Amino acid sequence: MWSMARVLTNVYLPPAAGHTLRTFGAYLPGGPDPAWRAEKERRDLADILPLIPAAEKPDALIISTPEYLPLPCDIASFPGVKILLITDWNVCLRYLPDLCPLFDFCFTDWPGYRLLRKAGIGNVHHQPLFGHDPETFAWRSGPRNLDVSFCGNLNAGLHRERNRLLARLGRWGTDRALHLGQAFGPAYVDVLNRSRLVFNYSVRGEANMRLYEAMACGAVPLVEASNQEAGILFQEGSHYFRYEPDTLEKTLDALLADPARIEAASGEARKAVARHSKSEQIRALLDTAGRESASGPSTPSISYVTPAAASLKAVVKLRVLGAAYAMPETLAELQARSGGLPGLDAETVPASLLSLIEDHPGEVLASADRMLGLMLDEGDRPEPIGAYFRTRLCSLRGRWDEALDASRHCLESLQALENGPARTPGAEALRDLYAHFYPPVRLGMGLNTDLNRAFRQDLAGGSWQGYLDLMRALCLAERSRILLALARPGEALECADRIPADRFAFLDPHALQAEACRRLGDEGRLRSIYREWFRERPLDTAVWDKLVEGYGRMGDNAALVGFLEEILVLSRRFLDADQAERVRALLERRRA
Question: Where are the domains of the chain?
Answer without folding.
Answer: 6-130+279-292, 146-276, 325-507, 524-592
